[in-house]
Structure formats: C-alpha cells, structure tokens
Specification:
Order of helices and strands: EHEHEHEHEHEEEEHEHHEEE
Shape: globular
Largest sheet: 5 strands, parallel
CATH class of the largest domain: Alpha Beta
Strand order of the largest sheet: 2-1-3-4-5
Distance between the termini: 38 Å
Helix content: 25-40%
Number of domains: 2
Oligomer: single chain
C-alpha cells in the first residue's frame, strides 16, 4: 500500500536527513529530503508535500526566508521548524512567520514524530498506515460569530464580507478552541493543550504569539480586540456569542 502522507525534510546535514527519514518511514510516511532552498522548491514544484520539516540554519537562504516564501505564495503546507539550542527568539520569529510548530536541536526522533503527528491532526492529514484519526468534531460543523463563519469540515474561515481568511493549522485550532468555549476563560496551558497537545514551560510564549497572529486576522483593531480578550492573570476569553449549525 502506498504511503499517502509526504514529508519534506529541508536540512543541509545529510546524516540528520537520513536518520530522520529512516525513523519516520516505518510509521507510514513517504519522506523526501532537500539540502537547500533551491532543492526544496524543485520538490514542491513537482510533488504534493503534506508537511515540511525545516531547519533554520541553511546555506544561502535560511529557514525564515523559505517559510516567508511559502506563506507569501499562499501555501498552507504545515511547517515544523528545527531551531538551535536556546533559540527562543528564533522560535518566536518562526511562529510569527507562520510556522506551525518548532523543535529544538538536538531532538528525540520520537518527539519529532509526536510533533509531526500533532500538526497533521490539526491540518486534517493523516498517514494511510497510521493509527491517527481525524477528530470527529472537525467534520461538517459550521460555527458563526459576529458575521464570521468557520467551516470545520473544510477548515475554512470566511469574513463577514465573504472573503476567505487563510489560517495556519495552529491558528485554526486556537480559534476552534475559543469557539467551542465562548465566554470561558482559558489559560495558556489549556490553549496549548488544545493546539499542540502539551503543557507550556514557564517562558513559553507560543500561545501569545498565536493569539497576536489570530487577532491580526479577525480583529478590526488588534490592539483593542473585540473577540479575543486578555484576562489579567488568567489567560484569554472569547467575548462573542457563537452559534453552531
């Protein structure tokens, strides 16, 4: 049976590429590798890729630049960044640019597998030979708020003006978590568990970055949000009524 989920590893270290590919393939993935941006673009032009594992430190064009190019081309391919030890700034910038998750080097192959699976769950793509299941609440439900419409079957957000708003996997899951629990205060750990399946560390700003990005997409004034409000010392609350159909 042919694997249906195609991962692309972009890293100039051939040993890392080989080891990661050998580890992931038995779990139902087809894995391609690229040593630089040019090789990445060639593969993307010829084949369908479901997720990119992207190293930040690359020759000529770094991971930031390549992620920016992907998002500028309106590509919603999920991206998992590989960052250097202690690179909190790198992680935050990567999330701002549209990455879906990050992993710090050196990393465990099993942790990478868990992160890849979590991102694929959020984007609705699963390996044919995997035990992963798409969560049923993501199928066929329409959630509306203040003229906005979230189609959870198609994973699409439409503005009151009828314009489709592009969301990364993390942004979609974050909005979905809010719409499931309007007028309820959700702390960072709860939101991170909803969107990434793990608890936050004491200095983890992932949710704050995602909140900022989501606000810029749905709020008329992100600095004075109407929908996603900050609760001092508590977390965040979605302050609009939500209807489901």
């Amino acid at each position: 049976m042919q694997n249906t989920t195609h991962l692309l590893i972009v890293d100039d270290d051939p040993e890392i590429c080989e080891l990661v590919a050998q580890f992931l393939e038995p779990y139902g993935f087809r894995v391609s590798t690229a040593a630089n941006g040019q090789a990445m673009r060639q593969i993307l032009a010829k084949e369908t890729v479901d997720l990119v594992i992207l190293d930040l430190m690359l020759p000529q064009e770094d991971g930031f630049s390549l992620c920016r190019q992907l998002r500028a081309s309106s590509s919603n391919i999920p991206v998992v960044f590989l960052t250097a030890v202690g690179g909190e700034t790198d992680r935050i910038v990567g999330l701002e640019m549209g990455a879906d998750d990050y992993l710090t080097k050196p990393f465990s192959s099993r942790e990478l597998l868990a992160r890849v699976r979590a991102v694929l769950r959020r984007t609705g793509t699963v390996p044919a030979q995997s035990t992963l299941q798409v969560q049923p609440q993501h199928r066929g439900q329409i959630l509306t708020f203040a003229g906005w419409t979230l189609d959870t079957g198609r994973r699409q957000l439409m503005s009151p003006d009828g314009v489709l708003v592009e969301l990364t996997g993390g942004e979609y899951e974050l909005l979905f978590a809010f719409l499931k629990s309007p007028h309820v205060v959700l702390n960072r750990d709860q939101l991170l568990d909803h969107t990434r399946g793990r608890a936050s560390g004491p200095y983890d700003r992932t949710i704050d970055v995602q909140i900022g990005r989501l606000r810029r997409k749905i709020e008329a004034d992100p600095r004075n949000p109407e929908f996603i409000k900050t609760v001092r010392g508590g977390g965040y609350i979605f302050a609009s009524n939500v209807e489901a159909r």
